[in-house]
Amino acid sequence: MVVGLWMAPSGLAQEIPEAFKEKAERIVKMRPKTYLVLNTELKSETGDTTLLRYFANLSRDADYLEGQSYALDQIGATYRNFSKFKEAVDLHQAALQLAEEANNVELKVRCLNMLGVVYRRTDAIKTALDYNQQALEMAEAVENPSHHIKRNINVSLNCIGNLYQTLEQYDLAILQFRRALKLEEELGNKLGLAINHQNIGDCLDRKGDLEGALENYRKSLAYNEDINSTYGRIICKNSLAQIYLKQDMPYAALVLLEPLHEQSKTIGDYFITPLISINTGWAHTELGNYDKAYEFIMEGLEMSQTHNIPSNVLYAYQKLSDFEYKRGNYKAAYRYYKQADQHDEEISSATNFRYMNDVIVKYEADKKNNQISVLAKENEIVRLRLRKNQTTLLVSALIVGLISSILYILYRQYQSKNEKRVLTLEQNMLRSQMNPHFLFNSLNSIKLYIINNEQKNAVHYLNKFSKLIRKILEASSVKEITLAEELETVELYMNIENIRFSNEIEFSINVCDSINPEAIKIPSLALQPFLENSLWHGLSPKEGEKLIQLNVLNKNEGHVTLEIIDNGVGRGAAQINKENRVLKRKSVGIRITKERFANFSKDYQNSFDVDIVDLFDENGNPKGTKVVLDIPTI
Predict the structure, then answer these.
(1) Residue 150's pLDDT is what?
(2) Cα–Cα 20 to 30 A to 436, which of 1, 264, 444, 541?
């Protein structure tokens, strides 16, 4: 049996206190089946792996499956808290196997939840979600659940909420945490209340609701103080410090962070310890203490790499990028930004991405349905308020009320019409980016790699394709993004399209040294239609060398110029080719993009301009096309 992996070495029995030996023998003789009885008897020893291993051995010798399962599961939880994730998984798996042999639902649910927690700590989202959902389904199927089963329903909800949080589905995560919070209040479990308030605070923090996050972090800290949880206090204080940093209060953050370094190392949790170092580096960055800032961030990075915590490694690279940006070293900042982005890509394997993508689609559908329901209720509330206001105004002054109502309706119609126009532009833009021909042909190209057994190329381009789709979906939800993000998206797009051109196209991006792409805003997904036009109208019918060059130039103080230059057949020949096609495709991407640029420039003093120039050689023959975009910056 796998339990043999954790047998105590010879002579260890002599080190076990006689009082515990007597207790262990009594429990094994009683052979309790419920988690409650086992945990009541052994709760004071759950952190002592030596005593629990002794109890596991004694239970094994007596063929007491529940005792073995309980002990190994508790040892696994201790190993997890010390960031020994592989050992923790092996222990929980062994405990689960024993619980299944004993057909003990309480212990099975507990082991499944603990496996989910370990895999979540290592960012294995797919596996973690499988275990927690299995635990939740098993627990909710029990007709008369025990206190322990109810607690594990809350643990499952909390874990699933954390996974939603990892997938950046913060509203859905908060729903899970609040559901768990209500159940924890019914059970009177202060530890569960502390955990769920902490998690709700983290979601609100990520959504930008800093005041709401502070309120929940402080509630969590109060519960942790009440139950005297050192671990909980460390987590809460680190979270509070992170909020203070976002509120430009680095001194207040350092007051909380500095005592936590030794405390976190004492408890031995290498998940939270690197975060404390990284946040301390962030605080010193804001204060201009660059030597200390770099030292702390690098310390957090090295610990995260040593203990294989991918999310912390990503966070460290992001803060290194911010650190270099603060120092004015833009090239180094961009290099760390690229490293963070590359690490983010490595975290998402092809298998996990497909699973996550399916989950996100389902969650997004549920989210949209909830939003529609909320909007319907809000519309009903507005209608009732209007009716009440009309009645009140008619009693006091009918004419004034009538004029006010008419003006309000006209204003609402104008506002609704304007919002509908913007929404239509964004929807049309997303449809143009998610062109079904592009998706089908890209997937078909990747399929050919798989058929030809070119696994490395298939995985390489599948990662790029999945990342491109993710970036398109993310960018479609915001009005504007940085030029650096846009350049990265079009580079991915060109890499994917180049598969269909047998990698014949030479594509390059040249950014003027005086320009900081992170500081320039443009409409999201704005350059792809121009590149698509160059590809399919300029370069597709061309024989020989095929080039596309994207230049970012500093035109003047109020504008940045983007040039897209190709050496295609030119617009004249492209129009002839288009007319001769049997199937004519109507291109609306450029027209939509122009409208979006025009709407975007309303927020700036300067205006937007686009010009398409035909290029000719010295003999007057077409040699390509140049698109010139003048984008306002002030």
Answers:
(1) 85
(2) 541
